[in-house]
Write a structure and sequence with these properties.
Layout (H helix, E strand, L loop, with lengths): L5 E10 L2 E11 L4 E5 L6 H8 L7 E6 L2 E3 L4 H7 L1 E4 L11 H5 L12 H14 L15 H14 L4 E5 L7 H16 L3 E5 L3 H7 L2 E6 L2 E7 L5 H9 L18 E10 L3 E9 L3 E5 L6 H8 L7 E6 L2 E3 L4 H6 L2 E4 L3 H5 L6 H6 L15 H14 L16 H13 L5 E5 L7 H16 L3 E5 L3 H7 L2 E6 L2 E7 L5 H8 L10
Parallel strand pairs: 3-8, 3-9, 6-7, 7-8, 13-18, 13-19, 16-17, 17-18
Antiparallel strand pairs: 1-2, 1-4, 4-5, 9-10, 11-12, 11-14, 14-15, 19-20
Length: 502
């Protein structure tokens, strides 16, 4: 193995009384894809910020090409050849692709040679093995194309270590394949890639070595060939977890609580029909663009249906607002915690009471803060929300704990129908297991659940039935006993004709 280009030795970092990193040591060699994995709160984000100059370590040292360095700011990281791309790319929508690639350059002179700018941009894009017009406005780029622009920008700055932080969390399967191909291309060109992801299947497909962090500590660094999936999960969480055991039999369920017939939203989806029973988990499966989320938003009144029928407990209803949905006992746990699910600058107790605030009002409109805190504390214990207390601001919690706060907020509305949109997106394997167990427990209590998920192993672990969608059409419904990844994908990709709903 060649000499390391980047070494971190005994790196420690604390915030107030909390140790984010404790004596973390590992290295990166030229031309390798080195994965870093760990639960939310394991210290991955803090580590990235230290390597890119956003934070300064409290202890330890960083070596670059064998020499101690101090990365005091992001420009210092850039000067060394360290760059990072994140789940949500940072591009300037009013500029085109070439302008975004070279936005950080000061070496182009006072008078821009536009011909050379576009030629250089084309050369960088070609180097990545993708097709992208350098003249194209950034405002029209897909998420994957924006990431390509950021990678090309890093290459233009002579990047030697590229950090990819959850780069595929919001990408389609095709876009994931393209990103993994780009990572391999960079590796072949001698660039080191630090690949951080909760998606362990990607780690096993692309990484040369994998480093595990847990509770801010370095647990292991091993060649990927020497690691099994089970051993990696155990290193991450400190115990064995069987998160995705395939469900082979539906759980018993009760009466029909929601009936949907011929539901339509003009130009978005059409002819969606199903019944949902008390205690049942009905999963919506399909590829990105299948319009599963749009059906959920219609049922919750965010983007109301333009046709079809909805009945709740046998009574026809018209839902054109979230308030009306909540009055029917419907709650919606959004896939976007930060934008649509939680108020990040408010404490846990305020977030939990938001949808049901009327219950906490006293005379003259005063809010009963004692009651708020008492209810929040009960959910903190029930859902194992890891925080010092309910006064903690939600923005300071890990992704898994934010997900639990969002769930608590909707459970407090006492729903009989609970819609989960991507219930475990962006959370670690341990938190996934906890969320799955909570969903199973709610179903046993009689709550009817719709789970919208892009993760087929998750679907097969949770569902009693699976409704498959493709391009706004319902392709069929499977009982879980008849459901496999292959049968779902055959419908989701259009390889099989429309299946009759069961």
């Amino acid at each position: 193995m060649p000499a390391p280009i980047l070494e971190l030795r005994n790196i420690s970092k604390s915030f107030a009384m909390t140790a984010a990193l404790s004596d973390v040591t590992f290295d990166v060699v030229p031309g390798e894809i080195h994965a870093i994995v760990g639960e939310n709160g394991a210290g991955k984000s803090t580590l990235i910020k230290i390597m890119t100059g956003v934070y300064q370590p409290d202890g330890g040292e960083i070596l670059w090409e064998g020499m101690p360095v101090s990365i005091r700011h992001t420009q210092a990281a850039q000067a060394l050849g360290i760059a990072a791309i994140f789940q949500e790319p940072m591009v300037f929508p009013d500029l085109d692709v070439a302008e975004n690639i070279f936005i950080s350059h000061r070496d182009r002179g006072t008078f821009m040679d536009w011909g050379k700018l576009y030629a250089d941009a084309d050369a960088l894009i070609k180097q990545l093995g993708v097709a992208l017009d350098a003249h194209r406005p950034a405002s029209g780029l897909t998420l994957a194309e924006q990431q390509t622009v950021e990678i090309a920008r890093a290459l233009s700055l002579k990047v030697k270590v590229l950090i990819m932080d959850e780069p595929t969390a919001s990408l389609s399967a095709h876009e994931v394949e393209r990103l993994l191909s780009i990572a391999r291309t960079l590796k072949a060109q001698g660039v080191s890639v630090l690949y951080i992801s909760h998606r362990l299947d990607e780690i096993f497909r692309v990484a040369d070595r994998v480093t595990v962090l847990r509770d801010g500590k370095h647990i292991s660094t091993k060649p990927i060939a020497a690691v099994t999936h089970e051993a990696l999960v155990k290193d991450m969480v400190g115990r064995a977890i069987d998160t995705f055991a395939v469900k082979t039999k539906a759980n018993p369920h009760g009466d029909t609580v929601l009936s949907v017939k011929g539901l339509v939203r003009q130009g978005v989806f059409s002819d969606v029909s199903f019944d949902l029973h008390a205690g049942e988990v009905l999963c919506f499966a399909g590829l990105v663009g299948s319009r599963r989320t749009d059906v959920g938003l219609a049922l919750f009144g965010v983007e109301p249906a333009t046709g079809g029928e909805i009945s709740v407990a046998g009574k026809a209803v018209r839902i054109i607002s979230p308030q009306q949905a909540m009055e029917q006992g419907i709650a919606y746990v959004s896939e976007d915690r930060r934008k649509l699910g939680l108020a990040m600058t408010l404490p846990i107790f305020s977030n939990i009471s938001l949808p049901s605030l009327a219950r906490f009002l006293k005379a003259f409109g005063w809010i009963d803060r004692t009651a708020e805190r008492k209810v929040a504390e009960s959910y903190r214990e029930r859902l194992s929300i890891r925080s010092p207390n309910t006064e903690t601001h939600v923005g300071k919690l890990s992704g898994g704990n934010q997900q639990k706060v969002m769930l608590a907020k909707w459970l407090e509305t006492k729903p009989r129908i609970l819609i989960f949109d991507e219930p475990t997106r962006g959370i670690d394997v341990g938190a996934k297991a906890e969320v799955h167990n909570i969903m199973r427990a709610l179903a046993k209590e009689g709550v009817a659940i719709i789970a919208i998920s892009s993760d087929l192993p998750e679907v097969l672990a949770l569902a009693d039935r699976v409704l498959v969608m493709r391009e706004g059409r319902q392709m069929g419904i499977f009982d879980i006993a008849d459901c496999t990844q292959e049968s779902v994908m055959a419908l989701a990709t259009g390889q099989q004709e429309l299946a009759k709903a069961s």
